Structures are given as structure tokens and as C-alpha cells.
Amino acid sequence: MDDKHRYTTMHTQKVMKQLRKLRDQAIAAGKEYDEALSEAVSQLGGQMTASEAKYAREMEEISKGIAKICKATVATAIDVTTS
């Protein structure tokens, strides 16, 4: 990526487009966002350059962290409303 957060190669643009497509298909099939992203990254693993794979793994970690916080927040809200 450049300093304006744009992909700098056509290969990266194509891989990220495919990643979004696979992720969206998994979400449409009923998977959670973080699970769908991990599945898409796994499917594209062999097609990614080292920097693309690093970027995708970082997105996965961020997604997993957000999902963990959301699940904890929902669990707390349910506990508060049922107490």
C-alpha cells in the first residue's frame, strides 16, 4: 500500500477483490465475519505474495479482536437484562 492506503499492484488489487468475494460468500452462507475472513484467507493463501499474506493476517487478527469484544459485550448485555 502507498501512503494513501491504496494497493500498489494489479496483483494485489485482484487478490483483495477475490478475498472480499470469498468472504462475502461465506457470510452469505451464515458464517460470522471473522470466520468468513479466515476462511477466505486460507483459500487464497497460495496465491498471495508475502506482503499480501501479512496484510491479510493482520486483518484477521483485527477482525478476531473485534468479534471477541462484540461477543463479550452482547453476553454482558444479556446477563444484565436477565438478572
Features:
77% helix; 83 residues; single chain; mainly alpha
Describe this structure in words.
The structure is a single chain. The protein has 83 residues and is mainly α. It has one domain. The protein is 77% helix and 0% strand. It is built from three helices and no strands. It has helices spanning 10-28, 33-44, 50-82. It is elongated, with a radius of gyration of 16 Å. The model has no long low-confidence stretch (mean pLDDT 84).
Distance between the termini: 49 Å
Question: How many extended strands?
Answer: 0
The number of domains is: 1
Regions with pLDDT < 50 over 5+ consecutive residues? none
Radius of gyration, CA atoms, in whole angstroms: 16 Å
**Helix count, per DSSP?**
3
Rough outline: elongated
Strand portion: under 5%
Topology pattern, helix = H, strand = E: HHH
Structural category = mainly alpha
Average pLDDT score: 84
User: What percent of the residues sit in helical stretches (DSSP H or I)?
Assistant: over 70%
Q: Main β-sheet, in a few words?
A: none
In short:
The protein is mainly alpha-helical and 83 residues long.
